Fold each of these.
Amino acid sequence: MPVTDVQHDLDALTLTITADFAAPVERVWQVYADPRQLERVWGPPTYPATVVDHDLTPGGRVNYFMTSPEGEKYYGYWDVTGVSAPDRFTFDDGFALDETFAPNTELPVSHNVYDFTEVDGSTRARFVATYDSAEGLQQVLAMGVVEGASSAINQIDELLAS
């Protein structure tokens, strides 16, 4: 299992997940840079993702939806704020109302920093999501973000091995 640590800090408004992958940084970067690979790991195994638009450049947008086992679709987006390939990218991750990908202002947006660092030929990934309020962080924790994100990240090993 790649996920080695999960911390949430209501005072700092952060959720931090650390994972280790037996692959070079450049290979792990490709998981996020390629929409077809991203689909295989964004979302828990029982809620597979479909990436509709993928522009991983500053000012770009990634639109996606996840499909539940019952066929319900849950829409989301990334507004990409920074990219330093292959080491880091930053984005705002939000929930969308529907297939128009208009933001759902009833749900919180997280400001994310994904860092990839080489450690002895492998990659240590650090995923940090910061929320605007403790209530927003608590809301996504209650929705199961730790379990969902951890199970999604843990799928990356299988993709890297293929």
Amino acid sequence: MKRIALVPVIAAAMVAVMGSAAYASQYVAYEGPGFTGRQQFIDACGPSNIHYHGSYKWYGDGQSGRMYNQPNAQGVMHFELAADRNAEQRTPVGWQSIFIVC
């Protein structure tokens, strides 16, 4: 009897853990200065090219973001966005790619 009662408890715990894993750090690139124009949302682990350079917002939620001045996270890392802090810049940025460390 105890084994049957334990199955729903384990399933509920797995759902709770998987649900909390859905949050990830996110880089939002804006086409224009002051967070205007089209947007690109990047939250995938690994390298991503940045299409807009007018301004950005970073939401640090557990993963850091390594910023590169070349596409495909090539060359030397220029800057690292913190895993536990948000950041933003209202003016244009030169970063061409990001590598989100997961």
Amino acid sequence: MTNEEKQGIELGDIISLDDENGELLGDFEVIALFDHKGKQYVALTNSVDEDNESEEDEELDIFVFEVDGEELVPLDEGQEEEIYEKLDEVLEDIELIEPEDK
């Protein structure tokens, strides 16, 4: 069983997120799962309805959470830069984004 199966989260899953007051923030799609320093992280972006797809060149907001058991834990401010750099490496490896030095 892979880490993704253990956590119950897979690429392409749609996850509904609430804010700290329980208000629905919206639906988000899992675009990456990765490990860093012994912890698992998930990258999400706003779910795009295929019928209402925006322009391909539009920049997507990406949110990263630590996976702790069944919960998604927001990143601490101090770890954001390091985790987003790791996410960039992961996305470059699967050729979703172009390396900056090209």
